[in-house]
Write a structure and sequence with these properties.
about 200 residues, alpha+beta, 2 domains, three-stranded antiparallel beta sheet, 5 helices, about 40% helix, about 20% strand
Length: about 200
Amino acid sequence: MSLLTCINEVCDVVALDQFLTVIGANSPNAQTMVELANLAGQEIANRGDWNRLITSSVIDVEPYPLPVAYDRLVGGGTIFSATHGFIRPVTNKAAWRILIDGPSVTPFYFIEQNAVHFSILGSGINNDLDYFSKNYVTHTVGVPTNTFTLDDDSVIFPERLLTLNMIWRWKRQKGLQYSDELAEFEAAFMADLTADMGST
């Protein structure tokens, strides 16, 4: 299902005429729909640990610049080494400063200024950085992104979630009652996310 198809399904529910195109359209309603689709897509992607968003890159330099598509780490943030060990995260800057002031026997890492820093030089090299990508939009050609740019763009999560999320957002924007639609979205979101997590 494409972005255009999802938006036209929303139109059927909220009593708008369907669109022939939405990306680049001059219609204020089409522009609003695209904006709502982007907000909905970002929320759904950020709230769910979707399997299709999991990606990995090999650390080949220290400090290691975070990939452009990086959103958040997988599985609590531990970096697993090729030797079956692991490198634990430090999330507090003060704790990191204390740690690097003295010699560290156990390797740790800290993310700062869009890079991964390691307490022991070389401890991160050749390890995999597993993370969730922020790019939930897929194209028929080209690389995934985190913004809709074509009418035939699709999403990595179940498309019905995009449609349901947009419906309650549209009604809220228009000052209409939307609690039932929001509840329907939340129930569908949990069901689909649970099914996705069980597919690994």
